[in-house]
Specification:
By secondary structure, the protein is α+β, with helices and mostly antiparallel strands. The chain is built from two helices and five strands; from the N terminus they run ββββαβα. Strand 3 and strand 4 form a beta hairpin. It is globular.
Length: 119
């Protein structure tokens, strides 16, 4: 199957951190969503390491506390040809589409990628 986007079509994988069930996110770049127990998307993001980012959200309380207690971390791995700029553009579109409560910005800011040093 040929697809044109940076993510394969279909539903994202889901992981429930409080019960440790579902598909555990890999240490790969991709898009993620935090969904509360009522099924509402409360945060959309993009990262170069899905697993690390999930744990950051657990530590800062965006994933396990308040309105997201019992919620899920949904994720999709990006196409190996994607770059952070294309993932950020996709993130901006998803934030505009879902208008999640915990996103304070329109998305896509991220930290600039480290430049490889010339040796």
């Amino acid at each position: 199957m040929i697809y044109m986007g940076i993510y394969k079509p279909g539903r994202p994988n889901k992981y429930w951190p409080e019960t440790h069930t579902g598909n555990y996110p890999p240490e790969l770049p991709g898009e993620y969503r935090i969904r509360n127990i009522m099924g509402v998307i409360t945060y959309v993001g993009e990262t170069n390491n899905l697993r690390r980012r999930m744990y950051q959200h657990l530590r800062n309380g965006k994933l396990a506390n308040g309105m997201n207690a019992g919620g899920s971390f949904e994720w999709q791995v990006a196409d190996g040809r994607s770059v952070s700029d294309t993932r950020r553009e996709h993130e901006r579109k998803k934030i505009a589409q879902h208008n999640p409560a915990y996103n304070k910005s329109k998305g896509g800011e991220g930290r600039p990628a480290k430049k490889k040093s010339k040796k």
